[in-house]
């Protein structure tokens, strides 16, 4: 276990990665799915509350940053015309199911069940972006997601009491962000291996 204040390194890296992602939005390189980003803002902020309630301390600051970055992405996207991805029926269904999971969290007093609902909500929000990125990897860049991985690794390194409600959301975010990055680089990785096989 590392000193709690080391979380500020992870938070700083996350913030800088978020700024780089936002720069890509401004220049029209990245086209975020706003349904995904709205839930990614909402779920971590709720997760922060749950982690604090479970006694997470400084660890919760990392989870908070996981929601603050998406808030900035939404604000910038709304002020730029035609930068966000077109929302379809599937996106709306995933968004509604995500919100339903958050409502179930609100009516559940059990911390473990609550954090599971928050994770389910966040994961459902990932599906529209997973699909978009898998089909059109050029509409994303890895910086926003890499920042999430680094931030949550630092959050895990400072945990004192390994209770499910404290570590679960950070572990989930690391895995989800790794999947997203793998989709971003999917075509490049495929071309690399094809080239190696035929060289």
Summarize the topology:
Elements: H1 7-26, H2 34-53, H3 59-79, H4 89-106, H5 111-135, H6 143-157, H7 164-184, H8 186-198
Describe the 3D structure.
By secondary structure, the protein is mainly alpha-helical. The chain has one domain. The chain has eight helices and no strands. Helix 1 packs antiparallel against helix 6. The longest helix is centred in the middle third of the chain and has 25 residues. It is globular and about 50 Å long. The termini are far apart. The model has no long low-confidence stretch (mean pLDDT 81).
Outline:
The protein is an all-alpha fold. The protein has eight helices and no strands. The chain has one domain.
Number of strands: 0
Distance between the termini: 46 Å
Please, how many domains?
Answer: 1
Q: What class do helices, strands and sheet pairing give?
A: mainly alpha
Q: How can the largest sheet be summarized? A: none
Order of helices and strands: HHHHHHHH
Q: Which quaternary structure do these chains form?
A: single chain
**Gyration radius, to the nearest Å?**
17 Å
Morphology call: globular
Number of helices: 8
> Can you give the helix content as a percent range?
over 70%
| Proportion of strand residues | under 5%
Show unreliable segments.
none
Please state the average pLDDT score.
Answer: 81
Key attributes of the depicted protein:
199 residues; 8 helices; single chain; mainly alpha
